[in-house]
């Protein structure tokens, strides 16, 4: 065979990834359930098409590949991945590598990895972020799987990945499900980041009464400083857009029901399993769920009178926009700290040794949460000291300390005005819980001991105790 790599599945992501690989000078064999797409991909892309080898059957596809074969699946996540793997496995030879580059549940990746590695073939679970444009021109790539397969993939992946100041945004992150787990957390952080931006937009719209075009200017300004990121940039772009049909701001004609494909929910579920509070991500996932029941919300709006907003003057302070900026920046740090805490816990639980600094580095470009801020996170984890949580990294301690009051004021005002801020307030609640040395679960432990003899430990003595509580 001639091809350096093969891609099965030429939907949005597969086709764009194939073009990216071919453009970088690698020969890529392509196959698709609907075979015509493979030939169209070659024929419709003059100049790049010569590196694309369309195939009509799995046999042709396998025969087109150099050995050891690199077979990358970019099909709909779930059953289709298992089906394709089962069909091609008998045609492969020991040492060949199957790569699932879709958005897999990392639990599936662990299962597939174990099954495949037992047969002498290799399995790689690879998270690809950046959507259609990322796949075409440079995604952020999170690789997990057998370490010995990475040198086979690295030359191709380093060429097709996004670059941040020249450094390719791709890395091997750990065995089996590590890559897909990190991609899941990336998406969870993305949910939280987007939700918090939407909450600030809600305050600007319903609290201050700003027009979308005015907000666009503010977000564009924020994009020049600490919050600078792709998500803030596209917020400014979307808010500035006018609907060609009505002449109204585009955002004003869009239905307030958010879609979701499930990766945010996975992030929350995995955080819960690990006993980590990813409350900002949970708030974001829940908010999308509530948003999707619009009819129910409209009924509820009629049942409750408007909140008395007298005394809650968002526009009353000259620095209110600066306060919103600082509140968002502070909440964002807390949300990222939760995502990173989830990865740190998973790393211990699954024995992965996830490189947290490296993860921040490969997220600096190509992916949806790309930002300069991730460079700060990389530096915090790069100090060599064991950073137990971003909220304890010196640089972030200073930033949160500086922004805490703004976050408190913004959340408090929004709450008084009845403007929902589920993610911003979750960030604040988590922070207040996290920074309190003497918590309140001593009472919880007393209750548990009373009703279930669950025992407790004491502050003044070693050991495990049970108290004879009065009978209730
Ligand atoms: P599309 O819906 O565009 O394409 C799906 C592909 O899967 C098609 O090639 C389709 O073949 C193939 N397929 C579906 N079912 C089967 C099956 N049972 N057997 C064989 N082939 C099948 O999906 P995307 O390209 O958007 O997504 C692919 C993966 O990438 C998903 O896991 C997705 O979550 C992930 N992803 C998507 C992103 C995006 O922005 N779209 C971003 C990051 C990851 P056919 O042409 O014959 O229908």
UniProtKB/TrEMBL annotation:
Catalytic activity field: 6-phospho-D-gluconate + NADP(+) = D-ribulose 5-phosphate + CO2 + NADPH
Superkingdom field: Bacteria
Assigned EC number: 1.1.1.44
All copies of domain 6-phosphogluconate dehydrogenase C-terminal, residue ranges: 179-470
Binding-site positions, substrate: 103, 129-131, 186-187, 191, 261, 288, 448, 454
Its biological purpose: Catalyzes the oxidative decarboxylation of 6-phosphogluconate to ribulose 5-phosphate and CO(2), with concomitant reduction of NADP to NADPH.
Protein name: 6-phosphogluconate dehydrogenase, decarboxylating
Species in which this protein is naturally found: Aurantimonas marianensis
Gene expressing this chain: gndA
């Amino acid at each position: 065979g001639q091809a350096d790599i093969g891609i099965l599945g030429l939907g949005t992501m597969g086709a764009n990834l194939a073009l990216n690989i071919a453009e970088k000078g690698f020969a890529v064999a392509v196959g698709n359930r609907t075979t015509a797409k493979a030939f169209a991909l070659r024929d419709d892309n003059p100049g790049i098409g010569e590196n694309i080898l369309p195939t009509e059957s799995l046999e042709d596809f396998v025969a087109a590949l150099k050995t050891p074969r690199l077979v990358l699946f970019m099909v709909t996540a779930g059953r289709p991945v298992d089906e394709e793997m089962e069909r091609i496995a008998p045609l492969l030879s020991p040492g060949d590598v199957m790569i699932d580059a879709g958005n897999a549940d990392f639990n599936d990746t662990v299962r597939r990895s174990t099954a495949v590695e037992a047969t002498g073939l290799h399995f790689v679970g690879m998270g690809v972020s950046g959507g259609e444009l990322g796949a075409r021109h440079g995604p952020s790539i999170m690789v997990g799987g057998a370490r010995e397969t990475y040198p086979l993939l690295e030359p191709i992946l380093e060429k097709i990945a996004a670059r941040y100041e020249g450094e390719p945004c791709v890395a091997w992150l750990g065995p089996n499900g590590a890559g897909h787990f990190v991609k899941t957390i990336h998406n969870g952080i993305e949910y939280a980041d987007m939700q918090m931006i939407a909450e600030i937009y809600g305050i600007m719209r319903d609290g201050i009464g700003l027009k979308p075009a005015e907000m666009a200017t503010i977000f564009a300004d924020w994009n020049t400083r600490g919050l600078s990121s792709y998500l803030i940039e596209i917020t400014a772009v979307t808010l500035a857009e006018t609907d060609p049909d009505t002449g109204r701001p585009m955002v004003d004609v869009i239905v307030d029901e958010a879609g979701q494909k499930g990766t945010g929910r996975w992030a929350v579920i995995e955080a819960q399993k690990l006993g980590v509070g990813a409350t900002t991500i949970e708030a974001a996932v829940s908010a999308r769920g509530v948003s999707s029941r619009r009819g129910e919300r409209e009924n509820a709006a009629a049942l409750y009178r408007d909140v008395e907003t007298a005394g809650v003057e968002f526009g009353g302070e000259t620095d209110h926009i600066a306060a919103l900026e600082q509140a968002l920046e502070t909440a964002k740090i807390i949300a990222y700290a939760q995502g990173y805490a989830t990865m740190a816990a998973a790393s211990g639980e699954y024995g992965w040794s996830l490189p947290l600094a490296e993860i921040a580095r490969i997220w600096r470009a190509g992916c949806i949460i790309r930002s300069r801020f991730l460079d700060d996170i990389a530096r915090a984890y790069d100090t060599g000291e064991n950073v137990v949580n971003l909220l304890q990294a010196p640089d972030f301690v200073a930033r949160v300390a500086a922004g805490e009051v703004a976050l408190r004021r913004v959340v408090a005002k929004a709450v008084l005005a009845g403007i929902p801020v589920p993610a911003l307030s979750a960030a604040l609640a988590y922070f207040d819980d996290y920074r309190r040395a003497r918590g309140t679960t001593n009472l919880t432990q007393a209750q548990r001991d009373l009703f279930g003899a669950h025992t407790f430990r004491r502050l003044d003595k070693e050991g495990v105790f049970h108290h004879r509580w009065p009978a209730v």
